[in-house]
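BUG-244 | component: ligand-complex export | severity: low

The export step for NAP jobs runs without errors, but we want the raw record kept on the ticket for reference. Input record follows.
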Amino acid sequence: MATALITGSARGIGAAIAERLASDGFNIAFNDINEGCFENNDIVEKIRAKGVEAEVFCADVSKYAACEEMVKAVKERFDTIDVLVNNAGITRDGLMARMTEEQYDLVISVNQKSVFNMMKNVCEIMRKQKHGHIINLASVVGVYGNPGQVNYSASKAAIIGMTKTVAKEYGSRGITCNAVAPGFIHTPMTDKLTDEQKAAMLSRIAMKRYGEPEEIASVVSFLASEDSSYVTGQVIEIAGGLSI
Ligand code: NAP
């Protein structure tokens, strides 16, 4: 059975992706930063109830050695890694004038460096397998920018460049690499925005509603499937018409 490794998958969009890919028949390798993320959380049991195998691999994806060790452990446990979803991400918002160097560096290491850490290790396995699908979580903010998010927009713009580069480097090896760029999606990450910020965002969305994690997961499911076998290096915006 094929295996999907999803970073930051204890909750939010990552958990919805895990549920969808399990329904598609993938075994699920969960990742989050620590065991605590899976306490009082029935996501792993929910996935196993679908008849696939699921295991938790805790690691801080901003650390290269931790990713190397995790990828090795996933390969040992499941034998193959067919799909990698780089989903882990954080925000540390603030206007640039007030943003600290620590806020900048942390977001870059968790959101962007992690994608290098994971792709470098997983691509080696996928290259030997001669197939694999990588899906990276970018953001509309990485394409259009957003006041208060110079760190986050930099990390997400970089992910778009990395996605296209890896698509070119590994296209001939049977590996596809695509990105999805969500707009405003209901998750714990966006719950912490102020009502004013939420209202401002809503006014710019053509569909006049926020997205749900399952609406990201369905596009990831397509990119993880053979239905998208000739799609690589693309960035698919999932934003209810935010940018049109
Ligand atoms: P979320 O609810 O905050 O979930 C992110 C998960 O990543 C959390 O479980 C978090 O663990 C984990 N994580 C954080 N740092 C990590 C690390 N160093 N190593 C491993 N795991 C780590 O966020 P979300 O809204 O589902 O977002 C998922 C992805 O979509 C992110 O890349 C985000 O940038 C992107 N995105 C989201 C939106 C949106 O509107 N929600 C829009 C565009 C893009 P903790 O609980 O310990 O923090």
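Assignee comment: Attached the raw record above. The domain at 3-238 is CATH 3.40.50.720 (Rossmann fold).
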